[in-house]
Amino acid sequence: MFRVTHSVKIPICVLAAMTALSTGSSALAAPGDDLGAIRDAITNLRQEYEAKIKDLEDRLQKAQAEAEAAKASADSAQAAAQDAKTVAAAQPAAPEPQVQRTPTSNNAFNPGIAAVLNGFFVAASHDPTAARIPGFALGDSASGPERGFSLGESEVNLTANIDPFFLGWLNLSFGNDNSVSVEEAYIQTTGLGEGLTLRAGRMFSGIAYLNERHSHDWSFSDASLPYRAFLNGQYGDDGVQARWLAPTNIFLELGAEWFRGDSFPAGGAADHGMGTVTAFAHAGDDINDSSSWLAGLSYLHARSDKRDTGGDLFSGTNDIGIATVVYKWAPGGNPIVRNLVLSGEYFFGHENGVFNGIAVDYNHSGWYLQGVYQFMPRWSFGLRYAELETARVGAALMGSALDDLGRTPRAETALLEFDTSEFGRLRLQYSHDSSDVRPLDQVLFQYTVIYGPHPAHRY
Amino acid sequence: MRKSIIAALLLAFGAASPAYANLNVFACEPEWAALATEIGGDKVSVYSATTGGQDPHQVQARPSLIAKARSADISVCTGAELEIGWLPAIVTQSANQKLRPGAPSAVEAASFINLLEVPSRLDRAEGDIHAAGNPHIQTNPANILSVAKPLAARFAELDPANAQTYAARLADFTMRWQAAMAKWQTQAAPLKGVSIAVEHQSWIYLENWLGLKRVIALEPKPGVPPSAGYLAQVVDTLQKTPAKMVIRAAYEDDRPSLFISDKAHIPSVTLPYTVGGTDGAKNLFSLYDDTINRLLAAAKG
User: Fold this and answer.
1) Is the entire prediction scored with pTM above 0.80?
2) In this complex, do B53 and A332 lie within 8 Å of one another by their Cβ atoms?
3) Could you tell me the residue range of the domain that residue B76 belongs to?
4) Are residues A129 and A56 in the same domain?
5) Are the beta carbons of A234 and A226 closer than 8 angstroms?
6) pLDDT tens per residue, range A117-144
7) Residue numbers in A near B116 (CB within 8 A)
8) Residue A178 maps to a domain
9) Averaged pLDDT of chain A
10) Which residue from B minimizes the CA distance to A459?
């Protein structure tokens, strides 16, 4: 910081700083507060100098009006006044680089880069990647990590402001089979004001609670049954999003999206690539210093044109409604020693169309409830229960993915977590999934680390 | 019809911001909320995002904070990465351009201070370090004054109609503050040269102000909670280089301090750290009164 003292050198370096700011390069790195401070300093100093000069001029006139004998001293006063004026006038013209300037370089505007690494060890009673949920046609990424050692999804995020109007976000995901996919790539407005934010590109939808978060940000290592069955783990697509934050004392956010409709629960980019629409509302507030809540209602309408799920073809419409409740507790608002997060969501789905050539019109639903309690700094444990209600589609679809085999899919999960820091996490998770005829028991070790710019944690 | 529905909705959820205040101030920490009130008086409506009982490093980005940030005209935060774990999420979600980093109405107190303990090595292996320097600036009252002036100027810029009020209140506050600082300096004279152990390295500005000598921190690295083994080392160090007391902020976990207090037979002192941290620290003035009283009591005992 610039130390503002009353000396002649200060305005020079202040002005030099101003010039440096206006000519660019490091300008964006300097906080606007500095600019304000500098502006204030300049105003103060200018006022001081003007007062001094005026004082000198006054004295000069006084001296001239007096006797000849005083002339000599008057002249010197005038000279002093001139000098002061010259100095004051010369300063803007000759800014000397007395403050440190960041040298110009071609990487000064590099975006913020963060990497997320993820590794698994899974011991399972049978192959988890082949796990089915009878009664549900599943998307291609509804199952968890494979058995044994594996590298989970690794991610690289690149983000920066593009200009005063947009920010950019690119998230590349590296699968453990060395495939690279663009998980998210969007531009987002930053300057609309009035609580309005628009986004365009590929993104995770803002519906539900966990959907928008990247999997490394979830409380459990895998997605719960309803997310797997209804949203293929997580729903993302290409499209546009608008969100509006109401100017209310409690948090109230409304959002709507229009997507291509190329990813599960839709498929085939129906309606000329405008096949899916969503709408959501989130509200939340504090209960007291220690507790707060968030609730949401989301709706997704998708049109599918020959959606292919493991060879099953579906054409028709898909409507999903999701209700969300989240409660967080931290004593005195201090989550670092102890805290509790309870959340639950209810999913309701309606599919109407043609499944493998047979007309279908059915409802299904599902819910989960989970709690994660941090009982001492860095240590937490969690429990999750999830259940699905199948459609009971009848004899015509016997033997297809929609045949529930008379079962009610359910899964229980427990987890123990140790955080090495805000940036590193080790997890041990056990789950018993009795969706299929043969229950799947698995023990899962996971590490997740993030490095790069400090992440800001969402609620 | 639609308008009346929206109006009804807004009413139901409580339309934000009272109309009589000219500026809505979103203060990240209670000390800046208190300072904003000192300077703004009834011309500003101040909301503090955290309380004296909360660790300002680690705050959940709760929905209520986003709602408050949405309607703020100016934010006053410490900066220097103190709030990096939560504030960016709130500012982004609030979609409020006035609070975006670098905006003139996003005031960062640390930018008016010569920060100490600027790390020579930027590496997360060194713990939770802040690139710009130690952000716990409010533990020295001189820093409050350094922030008060530019804050008043910023208020005047954003709300020129009340510029005179802000200037007058600043002058009044400055006078009272300087008198209080002289008083504290005298009161705290016996603390000069007193050795202390600290839980988190939050006190460098206080140490410099009062001439306290820090022997050791109970955290092996900033932000890393101490293990039992490390605390045993601390006890060893304190046997060789004794400290008069172990101090911690009111929001911090008391167990490491109490353990050391017990093993090294020195008093454990809970300092308010900010306004509202203790019952005695009701405003900016009593914050330092209470801090000095607690230190003096421990140094005597």
Assistant:
1) yes
2) yes
3) 17-183
4) no
5) no
6) 999 999 999 998 888 899 999 988 878 8
7) none
8) yes
9) 83
10) B61
